[in-house]
Amino acid sequence: MVTAATLVVTSLVLAWLGRDLLSPGGSLIIPTLIVFGIGCAIGITYWIVTGSRAAAVAFGAITVAASVWTFAVALPVTVVLDSGADAQADAAFARLAASPRSQYGIPVHPCSEKLAGSVGPLDAPYRVCAISTPEGHFVLFTARGQPTRGLSFTDRGASTFPDECSRHLVGEWWMFIGIAGGTDDCPIGYEFHGGG
Q: So where are the chain's domains?
């Protein structure tokens, strides 16, 4: 018979793995399949060793739950649990408002680099770029060297990402990925928003 402690430990390991494999603007399906495969392997191994059908059913349920967690829940929860995420977006808007302007009124330094810390699931180093126009306000958080994928705090929703793929996380937080050539061939879990 499978013990409760074994099920809890397996659940925690799969949930951590599901969160750790995800990256802003990255694939959702590949980490989900990895979690599913590892959960199945653990369940099948435990079933073969113990011969318990109850174990197979329990591990199957844990594997499905961990896969759903990875695909649909882990990133939004990570942003919600990061109490500093909203504060970082607010700080970027404040820096933008206080930054020097060009002769045309355009902010001279709309972007900054963060060398330590994190915002939601995005670890340093990352770039923070704030934009504020009459049409909307948003902050883009992108990993260094990957300007076409990351997180965004925006009051414009999916229209912030013309001709890109996006996924709503929670509140005003979105994940996005640019697609070569502006096609609508988005990774699974993202939606294309035309108009660029």
A: 4-81, 85-193
